[in-house]
Design a protein that fits this description.
Structural class of chain B: alpha/beta
Strand order of the largest sheet of chain B: 2-1-3-10-4
Number of strands of chain A: 0
Number of helices of chain A: 12
Radius of gyration of chain B: 21 Å
CATH class of the largest domain in chain A: Mainly Alpha
CATH topology of the largest domain in chain A: MetI-like fold
Helix content of chain B: 40-55%
Largest sheet of chain A: none
Radius of gyration of chain A: 23 Å
CATH topology of the largest domain in chain B: D-Maltodextrin-Binding Protein, domain 2
Shape of chain A: globular
Strand content of chain A: under 5%
Oligomer: heterotrimer
Helix content of chain A: over 70%
CATH superfamily of the largest domain in chain B: Periplasmic binding protein-like II
Largest interface: A-C, 59 and 53 residues
CATH architecture of the largest domain in chain A: Orthogonal Bundle
CATH superfamily of the largest domain in chain A: MetI-like
Number of strands of chain B: 10
Number of helices of chain B: 14
CATH architecture of the largest domain in chain B: 3-Layer(aba) Sandwich
CATH class of the largest domain in chain B: Alpha Beta
Number of domains of chain A: 2
Largest sheet of chain B: 5 strands, mixed
Order of helices and strands of chain B: HHEHHEHEHEEEHEHEHEEHHHHH
Number of domains of chain B: 2
C-alpha cells in the first residue's frame, strides 16, 4: 500500500492531477465559504461548466480557429523574416554592430502599445495581426539565431574552409545545423508570444472573430465575467498545448543536441 | 509600403470613377432606381459595439432589408468607438456606430470630418440607471458627495450625463470620484464596495436588481438630459460625398429595420441573441424603446452644449457640420 | 578613454541616419498617422517636458504620471522577483513539489496577460494595488523558471563539499544553492523587467494616472504625435531600465565570483 503510494507520487501525471484538483477545490471553497463574493467573481464550478459549454459552441470554436489561423500565419511570417535576418546579422558582424542600437531601442517598446499605432497603418484585420505578431515575436528568434551562430565550433568551420568550401556552403553545412536547436528554442518562445499577441490584437482592435473578440462581446452580457473567465481558461489551455507540441518536437528532432549538452553539464 | 497603399487607393478611385462614368453613359434610368446597381459601393463594413441599440442592423441583415437595396453589410464588433475612428477614416470601416460625445470630440478636435447618417438610440426612461447596493445609506443624488461613482469610460457620455445630474442636484463633478469599471463587473464592484454607486445600462441594472437587490438611485437621463440622443451611425465626410446612393440605400434599409424594432420587441430580442451574448430570458427583461428614426439637429446640439459646459470641448461646437444633407443630384 | 568614447559614438552612427530617413520619409508621406519625429518630439516636449530645468524639465503632468507608473512597475518587479526566486528554488530542489505544481504553473504562464485584466479588476478593483499585482503575476514566470532551473543544476561537487563541511540546510541554501542559481535568476529578472513595461501598459487600461493612461489619453484624443510620443517614451524607459540592470548585474555577478574565489 505504502509502496503504491510512493510509486504514484513518482508519476508526474498523478501529482499534476492532484495539484490541479487541489487548487480548483480551494478556489471553489473560497467562493462557497464567502471569502470571495460570488457576485464579484464566479465560482470555479460555474466557470468550468461554462468552459465545457464553450467547447460545444460552434461560434466559439470558430473564434478559436480564427485566433489559431492568425497565430500560425504570424508565426510563419516571423520565422521567414527573423531566421534569415538572424543568420545575416550573425555571420556579418559589421551589420550587426551597426544595427544593434536600433534593435536595442525597438525591442523594449511594449508590443501592446504598438497595437493602436499598427491599427492606423494596416488595413486588413489579418494583416494587422500578422504585423503585430511579427514585431513582437521576431526578437527571440533573431537573438537566439545570432547567439547560436556564435557558438558554432570554429574548428569545424575552419576545416571546411580549408577544403575550399565557400562561405554560403559553410553556413549551410556547419553553421545552420549547429544553430538549429537555438533557432528552435527561439521559435518556441516566439510561438507563445505570438499567441498572446493574436488574442491581444483581437481584444484591442475591431474585428469579426477570435478569442479576443469573444471577450469583447462578452462585455454585453451581465454574465460577461463568467464567459470571459471561461474563454481565458481555453486561451491558457491553447497556449499549454502549443507549447507542449513545440517542446515535444524539439526533443524529437534535436535528441543529439540535448544528449550532447546533457553530457557536458 | 504606405505609398503602395496610396497608389492602390488612387487606382481604386479611378476605377470607381470609370465605373461611374460607364454607369452614367449607360443611361440614368437604372441608376436612379433604388434597387438596381447604381450603388457606388455594395459591400459595407460596419463597426459596432455589441449593444442593444444596434439591433436594427441585425434585423435588417436577417430580414433582407439591406439585400433588397443591393447592399451586403458586414458587422465588425469593436471594443470602443474611439479606438475604431481611425478605421473609419482610413476606410477599413465604412460606417461606424459611435456615441455622439466621442463623435463630436473627433470632429471638434479636427481629427476627421464625420457625418451622422442615422440615429441609433435616444435615452428613454428605464434604459439606464445609477444603482446603489442594497441597504446603501445613499438614497438621493446629493448623498453622492465624496463618493465613488462607477462608469464604464471616463470623459465620455456616461460621465457627462452624471455630471449634468450632479449639477441639477447642487453638486459638481469634482464632488465625486469617477472610477472606471467594465459593465459586467459593476454589480460586483458595488457589492464589494469598490464603488458606492454605479452607472449601468440595460440589461445590467435589471440583473443587478433582481440578483443582488441593487437599488435604483436615479435615472441619469432626466431633466436637462431627458430624451438625450446617445449614439448614431457615422461615415466620413469623404465617404458621404463619394457614395451618396450607398448612404441613401443604407438609410432606407436602416429606417425599415428601426421601424420593425420599435413596433415588435420580440424581433429585437431575437436579434440580440445573435450579435450579443445576451440570452433570450435576459432580453425579455429589457425596456428598450429608444430606437430612433431621425437625427434631430436641435437635440444633437444639446449634446455639444453640455460638452462645452463641462469642458469636454474648448469652445462652442456647431453640430450643423455633422448633419448629412443628401445632395439633389 | 577618448578613443573608447569615440568608438562608442562611431558605433551609434546609425541613430542619426535612421532619424533623418524617418523625418524625410514621414514628411514625404505627409499622412496624419505618420508624424515626423520632430513633430513627435515637439508634442512630447509640450506634453511632459515643459517644466523648469531644476526639475529636469519635467512638468506637472510628467511628475504625477511617471513616478506612479515607475513605482508600480518596480514594486511589481521586486514582488515577482522575491516570489519567483522563493517558489522557483523550492521547485528546483524538490522534484515532488515540482510534479505537483508544474501543470498549474505552465497554465498560469500560458494565460495572455491582456485577458487577465477583467479578472484582476473583478478581484482587486482598479487602483495601484491591482496594477502592482497584475504586473507581478504577469512577469513572475521567467524568474520562477530560471530560478528553478538554476537551483536544480547545482554542481554536485559543491553540494558534496557542503555536506562534508556539515553546512546546515539554511547555510547550504545561502552559500551554495542561491549563488549557483544567481546567473540564471538574473537572466530571468532581466526578461521580466522588460515584460513589466508591457504589463504596466495593460494594467493602466483602467486607470486615471500613469504612463499607460497617458498613452490611452493620446489615443482616445486622436493625438497621433502624442501616441507616438508615448510609445517612444516607453521604448526609452525600457532601454534605460535594461542598461541600468545590465550594469547592476555585472557588478553583482563580479562581486559574487570574486567572493567565491576568495572562499
Amino acid at each position: 500500500m505504502r509502496l503504491n503510494a510512493r510509486r504514484a507520487l513518482d508519476s508526474p501525471l498523478v501529482c499534476g492531477v492532484i495539484g490541479v484538483v487541489a487548487l480548483l477545490s480551494a478556489a471553489e471553497a473560497a467562493g462557497r465559504l464567502g471569502l470571495i463574493s460570488t457576485v464579484q467573481f464566479p465560482l470555479t464550478s460555474t466557470v468550468l461548466l461554462e468552459a465545457a459549454g464553450l467547447a460545444a459552441d460552434p461560434a466559439f470554436l470558430a473564434d478559436v480557429a480564427t485566433t489559431f489561423g492568425g497565430w500560425a500565419l504570424g508565426l510563419l511570417a516571423t520565422v521567414a523574416v527573423a531566421v534569415p535576418l538572424g543568420l545575416l546579422l550573425g555571420s556579418v558582424p559589421p551589420i550587426e554592430a551597426a544595427l544593434r542600437p536600433v534593435i536595442e531601442f525597438l525591442r523594449p517598446i511594449p508590443s501592446v502599445a504598438i497595437i493602436p499605432l499598427a491599427t492606423f497603418m494596416f488595413s486588413g484585420r489579418l494583416d494587422l495581426k500578422v504585423a503585430v505578431i511579427l514585431y513582437a515575436s521576431t526578437w527571440p528568434i533573431l537573438i537566439n539565431t545570432v547567439y547560436g551562430l556564435r557558438e558554432v565550433d570554429p574548428v569545424a568551420k575552419e576545416t571546411l574552409r580549408t577544403f575550399g568550401f565557400g562561405p554560403l556552403s559553410v553556413l549551410w553545412r556547419v553553421s545552420l545545423p549547429s544553430t538549429a536547436p537555438f533557432i528552435a528554442t527561439g521559435v518556441r518562445v516566439a510561438a507563445a508570444i505570438a499567441l498572446i499577441l493574436a488574442i491581444s490584437t483581437e481584444l484591442l482592435s475591431s474585428g469579426a472573430g477570435g478569442i479576443g473578440n469573444f471577450i469583447v462581446l462578452a462585455e454585453s452580457s451581465p454574465e460577461g465575467l463568467r464567459m470571459q473567465v471561461a474563454a481565458i481558461v481555453w486561451a491558457g489551455l491553447l497556449g499549454l498545448v502549443t507549447n507542449g507540441v513545440f517542446v515535444w518536437g524539439e526533443r524529437r528532432i534535436f535528441r543529439w543536441h540535448t544528449a550532447r549538452t546533457g553530457a557536458t553539464q | 509600403m504606405s505609398g503602395l497603399r496610396r497608389r492602390l487607393r488612387i487606382s481604386a478611385l479611378l476605377l470607381t470613377a470609370t465605373a461611374l462614368l460607364a454607369a452614367g453613359c449607360g443611361g440614368g434610368g437604372s441608376a436612379s432606381s433604388p434597387n438596381a446597381g447604381g450603388l457606388e459601393k455594395a459591400e459595407l463594413n460596419i463597426g459596432m459595439l455589441p449593444l442593444p441599440e444596434v439591433a436594427p442592423i441585425q434585423i435588417a441583415i436577417d430580414k433582407g432589408f439591406f439585400k433588397a437595396e443591393g447592399l451586403t453589410v458586414k458587422p465588425q464588433i469593436i471594443q470602443g468607438g474611439a479606438a475604431a475612428v481611425p478605421d473609419l477614416l482610413s476606410g477599413k470601416l465604412d460606417i461606424l456606430h459611435s456615441n455622439y460625445v466621442s463623435a463630436i470630440s473627433v470632429v471638434a478636435k479636427g481629427v476627421g470630418k464625420l457625418k451622422v447618417i442615422g440615429e441609433a438610440w435616444t435615452a428613454k426612461p428605464g434604459n439606464f440607471a445609477i444603482m446603489v447596493k442594497k441597504g446603501s445609506p445613499i438614497t438621493k443624488v446629493s448623498d453622492l458627495k465624496g463618493k465613488k461613482v462607477g462608469v464604464n469610460t471616463l470623459n465620455n457620455v456616461v460621465t457627462l450625463t452624471v455630471s449634468a445630474l450632479l449639477k441639477t442636484n447642487g453638486l459638481t463633478p469634482e464632488d465625486v470620484t469617477f472610477v472606471e469599471q467594465p459593465f459586467p463587473q459593476m454589480a460586483g464592484a458595488l457589492e464589494g464596495g469598490q464603488v458606492d454607486a454605479g452607472f449601468m445600462p440595460e440589461p445590467f441594472h435589471q440583473i443587478a436588481a433582481s440578483k443582488n437587490g441593487a437599488v435604483l438611485l436615479a435615472e441619469p437621463f432626466a431633466g436637462p438630459t431627458a430624451d438625450f440622443p446617445i449614439a448614431g451611425y457615422m461615415v466620413s465626410e469623404q465617404f458621404a460625398k463619394e457614395n451618396p446612393k450607398t448612404v441613401a440605400a443604407f438609410q432606407r434599409a436602416l429606417l425599415k429595420a428601426t421601424e420593425v424594432a420599435i413596433s415588435n420587441s420580440a424581433e429585437v430580442d431575437t436579434a440580440l441573441t445573435k450579435y450579443t451574448k445576451i440570452d433570450k430570458a435576459t432580453a425579455d427583461l429589457m425596456v428598450l424603446g429608444g430606437f430612433s428614426t431621425t437625427v434631430n439637429e436641435t437635440r444633437l446640439q444639446r449634446v455639444a452644449d453640455l460638452m462645452l459646459e463641462f469642458k469636454y470641448l474648448p469652445q462652442k461646437f456647431d453640430v450643423k457640420q455633422m448633419m448629412h444633407t443628401p445632395s439633389a443630384s | 578613454m577618448i578613443r573608447k568614447v569615440a568608438a562608442a559614438v562611431l558605433r551609434l552612427w546609425i541613430v542619426p541616419v535612421v532619424l533623418v530617413v524617418w523625418e524625410l520619409g514621414t514628411r514625404a508621406l505627409a499622412g496624419p498617422y505618420f508624424p515626423p519625429p520632430t513633430k513627435i518630439a515637439a508634442q512630447m516636449g509640450e506634453l511632459w517636458f515643459s517644466g523648469p530645468p531644476t526639475r529636469l524639465w519635467l512638468n506637472d503632468t510628467a511628475l504625477t504620471n511617471f513616478p506612479y507608473s515607475i513605482a508600480n512597475l518596480l514594486t511589481g518587479w521586486v514582488l515577482s522577483g522575491v516570489g519567483g526566486v522563493v517558489v522557483g528554488v523550492a521547485l528546483g530542489r524538490s522534484s515532488l513539489l515540482f510534479r505537483f505544481l508544474d501543470p498549474i504553473i505552465q497554465f498560469g504562464r500560458a494565460l495572455p496577460p491582456v485577458t487577465l485584466l477583467p479578472l484582476f479588476i473583478a478581484l482587486f478593483s482598479t487602483g495601484a494595488r491591482m496594477h502592482i499585482l497584475l504586473i507581478a503575476f504577469g512577469i513572475v514566470w521567467p524568474v520562477l523558471f530560471n530560478a528553478a532551473d538554476g537551483a536544480r543544476h547545482v554542481d554536485p561537487l559543491h553540494l558534496d563539499t557542503a555536506r562534508v563541511f556539515r553546512l546546515s540546510r539554511v547555510q547550504r541554501l545561502v552559500k551554495v544553492i542561491l549563488p549557483s542559481a544567481l546567473p540564471k535568476v538574473f537572466a530571468g529578472l532581466r526578461l521580466s523587467l522588460s515584460l513589466a513595461l508591457i504589463l504596466m501598459v495593460i494594467a493602466e487600461t483602467f486607470s486615471t494616472i500613469g504612463i499607460g493612461y497617458q498613452l490611452r489619453v493620446a489615443e482616445r484624443g486622436y493625438d497621433l504625435p502624442g501616441t507616438w510620443g508615448a510609445v517612444i517614451l516607453l521604448g526609452v524607459l525600457g532601454y534605460v531600465f535594461n542598461q541600468i540592470f545590465v550594469l547592476l548585474e555585472r557588478r553583482a555577478l563580479a562581486w559574487q565570483s570574486s567572493a567565491q574565489r576568495r572562499t
